[in-house]
User: Which sequence fits this backbone?
């Protein structure tokens, strides 16, 4: 037995809550919309699919990812300060010796090669530099996480913008069909003498207004689609609509303090600032190392040959020299540069601590704002769902009143406008709640691509 397809957000205007309210031209338009809706999901893309496309295409995210890779390789360079170094040097020269008493005229060549190696034994500045590099990698990771969260929100915003524009156009077209039907009804009544020319002119004016709104809605949809295509790198991207009726996800945990507490651990801005404090602390250690000695183990091996003799002898000579030892370097005075460098790093450390506290406050405020925004949005959805039922009842009553002569045409037109405006507002509110959930997780820093899955489950199959 085949399960019938669930209605989408684009079809709800035809039969809200299972009760049709339009007829004639409107029903024909709805039939066409239903056919389009039933045939398009096979070619439509889900939010997760378009996000994956954006992740591989978006230049801003790719820039952040490549910057992270570069920072990882840069950090590895700091390891060289703890590892041994070795070098090989070689040279050849030719000299001419000319002496008049006694008369000696000789040319000779000198060949030499030196292999040297050094291993740091005590270099506190190098150790601090390596530890700094690890903190800088943590900073880069936080920056990449922030870029990924931003891409999730930007993709979702562009996705819902297209759905909003599609819903708006669908509602405007349905309203246009309803107004056209009301205009035809007013003309027939005028012809038979049961209404005045005023009803016809009011309906014509409303029809012209809705026609202008339709043109604006078509242009807005085109612009939104272009923006989505440019973000995800897909030509003519066709996002799937919501399946109705819909149960919007609730905010869990339902406690703003829990969201704020979580942000302290995971938010990229706080992680960056915390790593900044650690880096500043290590910069103080590096500055203080300017007063400390350095100790290195050194070794070298030198080979020198004179195949045609030297200035003192005509015989070929060869000398091999090797050495191994420990090199100590103790700074004594640097013109107060080290002392002032320490003072500078101490001030920068205090600044980093202030930056961390500022980041915590900003994140906490944004998290609270986003949390209450989602709560407010959910309340608006419930209120608009009730308003939709009331507006539908008001339209039915006005139509009946117009038919029996206790209501005029403008009452019906106003009731139609109110109903379609309520439907547009309700669709917009639903999208705002879904996007608000993502923005809440971005505000407290816990947003991941997995958070798109619950929204994906609400889309048409």
Assistant:
């Amino acid at each position: 037995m085949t399960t019938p397809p669930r209605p989408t957000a684009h079809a709800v205007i035809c039969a809200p809550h299972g009760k049709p309210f339009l007829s004639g031209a409107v029903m024909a338009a709805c039939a066409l919309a239903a056919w389009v809706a039933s045939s398009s999901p096979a070619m439509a893309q889900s939010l997760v699919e378009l996000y994956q496309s954006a992740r591989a295409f978006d230049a801003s995210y790719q820039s952040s990812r490549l910057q992270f890779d570069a920072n990882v390789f840069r950090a590895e360079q700091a390891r060289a300060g703890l590892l041994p170094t070795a070098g090989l040097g070689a040279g050849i020269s030719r000299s001419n010796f000319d002496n008049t008493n006694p008369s000696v005229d000789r040319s000779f060549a000198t060949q030499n090669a030196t292999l040297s190696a050094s291993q740091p034994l005590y270099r506190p500045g190098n150790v601090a530099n390596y530890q700094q590099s690890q903190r800088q990698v943590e900073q880069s990771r936080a920056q990449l996480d922030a870029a990924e969260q931003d891409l999730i929100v930007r993709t979702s915003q562009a996705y819902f913008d297209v759905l909003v524009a599609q819903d708006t156009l669908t509602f405007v077209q349905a309203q246009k069909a309803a107004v056209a039907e009301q205009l035809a009804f007013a003309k027939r009544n005028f012809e038979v003498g049961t209404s005045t020319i005023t009803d016809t002119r009011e309906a014509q004016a409303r029809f012209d207004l809705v026609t202008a709104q339709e043109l604006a809605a078509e242009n807005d949809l085109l612009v939104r689609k272009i923006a989505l295509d440019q973000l995800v790198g897909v030509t003519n991207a066709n996002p799937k609509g919501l399946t109705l009726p819909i149960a919007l996800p609730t905010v869990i945990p339902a406690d703003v303090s829990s969201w704020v507490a979580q942000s302290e651990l995971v938010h990229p801005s706080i992680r960056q600032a915390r790593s900044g404090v650690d880096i500043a602390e290590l910069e103080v250690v590096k500055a203080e190392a300017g007063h400390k000695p350095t100790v290195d183990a050194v070794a070298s091996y030198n080979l020198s040959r004179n195949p045609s003799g030297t200035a003192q002898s005509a015989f070929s000579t060869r000398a091999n020299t090797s050495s191994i030892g420990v090199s100590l370097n103790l700074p004594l005075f640097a013109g107060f540069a080290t002392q002032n460098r320490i003072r500078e790093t101490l001030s920068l450390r205090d600044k980093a601590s202030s930056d961390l506290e500022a980041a915590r406050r900003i994140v906490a405020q944004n998290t609270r704002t986003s949390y209450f925004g989602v709560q407010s949005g959910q309340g608006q959805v419930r209120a608009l769902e009730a308003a939709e039922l009331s507006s539908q009842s008001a339209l039915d009553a006005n139509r009946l009143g117009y038919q029996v002569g206790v209501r005029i045409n403008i009452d019906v037109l106003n009731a139609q406008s109110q109903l379609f405006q309520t439907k547009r507002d309700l669709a917009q509110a639903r999208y705002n709640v879904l996007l608000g959930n993502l923005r809440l997780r971005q505000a407290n820093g816990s947003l991941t691509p997995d958070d798109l899955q619950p929204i994906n489950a609400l889309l048409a199959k």
Remarks:
- The chain has two domains: 16-83+124-292+334-456, 84-122+293-330.
- The chain has a mean pLDDT of 86.
